[in-house]
Each structure stands twice: as structure tokens, then as C-alpha cells.
Amino acid sequence: MKILVTGGAGFIGSNFVHRTLATRPDSAVTVLDALTYAGSMASLAGVEDRIRFVEGDVADEGLVDQLVGDADVVVHFAAESHNDNSLADPSPFIRTNLIGTFTLLEAARRHGVRYHHISTDEVYGDLDLDDPKKFTEDTPYTPSSPYSASKAGSDHLVRAWVRSFGLRATISNCSNNYGPRQHVEKFIPRQITNVIDGVRPKLYGDGLNVRDWIHVDDHNDAVWTIIDGGRVGETYLIGANGEMNNRDVIAMILEMMGQAPDAFDHVTDRSGHDRRYAIEAGKLRSELGWTPRYESFRDGLAATIEWYRDNESWWRPMKDATEAKYALTQKVVGR
Length: 335
Ligand code: NAD
Ligand code: TDX
Known about the structure:
single chain, 335 residues, alpha/beta, Rossmann fold, UDP-galactose 4-epimerase, domain 1, 2 domains, 43% helix, 17% strand, binds nicotinamide-adenine-dinucleotide, binds thymidine-5'-diphospho-beta-D-xylose
């Protein structure tokens, strides 16, 4: 199968490429990635010789047309992905997440190519901490940030292309991923690398915000399950019952790294900060038989800490610039 992976030099996309080559060695993988601040060839180390890498923009119509025309399936990971950045400057989010998706959809329509769209649970807004409900495929869209609104818009484009043009597409909306090769701007890698550097972890607001954690390999296995067996036109939520509040995650990281569980700083809260995400993945489990392999968040987190300890050369080049950016907007407000 010839697979076009957009965003394959980013966190989830690069893990998808590694996993695809390990589990489906006959696949012909092409990666299209613009190598923004979030993309790195180092994330494809060890497989560069087994893939075709194209540096380019998903909003480049001519390039996208050529690459999509040569594929059996497109898996679209490329995006501007960080909420904090979308608050500082929404414009690249509109261009990449909306115009980029539109460009890919048009090419997939012209060439009749199967398309899988990678999206997020953030399109559903947030839940109260004591709400017994979780997000399902029927939850209304109420995105909070420029990032989540741009992802919501891209999902709507996909649905319109299915209904109006008969595009053979599926969508998945996944919860928060963790694992190797995640940019140090994101919550878990930021705290792990801070502790390695002797810096106190940084908690936004009261830290009671809940995220529903899933290992990146479980996400990517679910994506393959949907490409293989999902019904065209359908949306599948992906999650692994990993709800935990940020304060508890920081305490776990500190404890696993030999520090006191309260050795963190409270910093300025994120504007519009979503309170809680929680996924009900029953449709994916019952219809397609998917189950996560990582049963213990603690074990997955321990392996992730180990990866950052062993791969400082991967994250060191991005650490100072990331913290310098945060320093412009975040102040320590308590200990
Ligand atoms: P990431 O920021 O780590 O990687 C994004 C990749 O896309 C980078 O390699 C970057 O260079 C590339 N890219 C950005 N703009 C591009 C453009 N215009 N053209 C081509 N390439 C471009 O992101 P991630 O965390 O790996 O997220 C991947 C996808 O998964 C995104 O669509 C995101 O919305 C979705 N998602 C992420 C999570 C999560 O927890 N990280 C959860 C659910 C869904
Ligand atoms: O230093 C921090 N301290 C902190 O308390 C950072 C960077 C984050 N946080 C909080 C904010 C969130 O409640 O941790 C939580 C997780 O933050 P992020 O890693 O920025 O993720 P989130 O905003 O939840 O979005 C992530 O999951 C859904 C991905 O970045 C998105 O791409 C995905 O769609």
C-alpha cells in the first residue's frame, strides 16, 4: 500500500511512520512535512532510507496534487498543534489547519484517493469536573481556542466533502497523547525536561484541569484499525480511559524522577483553559474491536521519562527557545 503521511516529522506522525514500517514492512511511505519549528528529521532517524521524504507545505496545491495522485491512502496529521501558540498568533493555524486540509481534500477528490483525517477531542469544548458524561461521536462541537476551532473547521470540511462529493474519508478524534518524540512545548515533555535541567515544573492555574491520556502507539494502532475496517463517512473517537488532573501528573513525574511531589511552580493560567476532556471510545471498541495495549499510564510515563533521559540530543536544540517563548507570557504566581 502506498501511504502519504502529512506531518510525518512531528510527534504523532513520526511515531506513525516508525510503527507502520515495523508492523507493515511492505508499506511504501511518503512523508510530506514543512519542517516547521515542530518538525524534525531527527524524529525519523533510523527509517530515512526506507521512506520518501518531501519537504513541503500541505497548502501547496501543485505539490499536494502530485503526491496525493501517487498514493493509495492519505493520513493527514500535519497541523499547527499547540493551544498556547494559537493564542499568541492564530494565523498559521488558519492557514495550515483549514487551507491545508482543504488543499488535501481537493486533491483526494480529484484522484479518488482514500483519506483519513486526524483530529482532536478538543473540538467538543470541555466538560465540568463533576460531569458524569464523556465526549461521544454525537457531542456538539463547541471549540474554545483558535487551535481547536481550526481543527473543528477542518473536520466539517471533511464531512462536507464526503456528503457532497462522495469522498472516501474517515475522521478520528483522539484525546491527549504522550510518548517519545513529543515537542518540549507540550505539558509532559516540558516537565520531564525541566526536571532533568533542575528547573521546577510549571503548572497552569489550580492544576485541577483533567486530560484523558493515551499512549501515542495506541492512538496510531487505532488509526490503522479505522483505515482497515472503518466505515467511510464515519467518525471514531479514540481514547483509553486515561483521565488524570495535571497536578497529579506533575506529582507522578516528580516522584518518578526522585523529587518531592510538590516541588513545582504555579504559573499564569492559559486564557480560556479547557477544564476537562474525557473520551467514550465505545464505538471504536465494539464496531472495530480495538483495545489499547498500554494499560498502565504509570508504566507508559516511566518509559517516556526514560526516552527523554536517553535522547537529550533530540530535545536539547528546542528547549531554550521554547522556554524563552513561555517566559514572555508566563510568570510564577505561587509555589
Ligand atoms: P506536532 O506539532 O508535533 O507535529 C506537526 C507536524 O506537522 C510537524 O512535523 C510540522 O512540521 C508539520 N507541519 C506543520 N504545518 C505544516 C504545513 N503547513 N505543511 C506541512 N507540514 C506541516 O503535532 P502532533 O502533536 O504530532 O499532532 C499531529 C496531529 O494530531 C494534529 O493534527 C493534531 O491536531 C492531532 N492531535 C494531536 C493530539 C496530541 O495530543 N498531540 C491529540 C489529538 C489529535
Ligand atoms: O507547562 C504547562 N503546564 C500546564 O499546566 C503546559 C505546557 C500545559 N499545562 C496544562 C494545560 C493543559 O491543561 O497541561 C494540560 C496539557 O497541555 P498541552 O500539552 O498544551 O495539551 P492540550 O492543550 O490539552 O492539547 C493537547 O491535546 C489535544 C495537544 O497539544 C493538542 O494538539 C491535542 O489536540
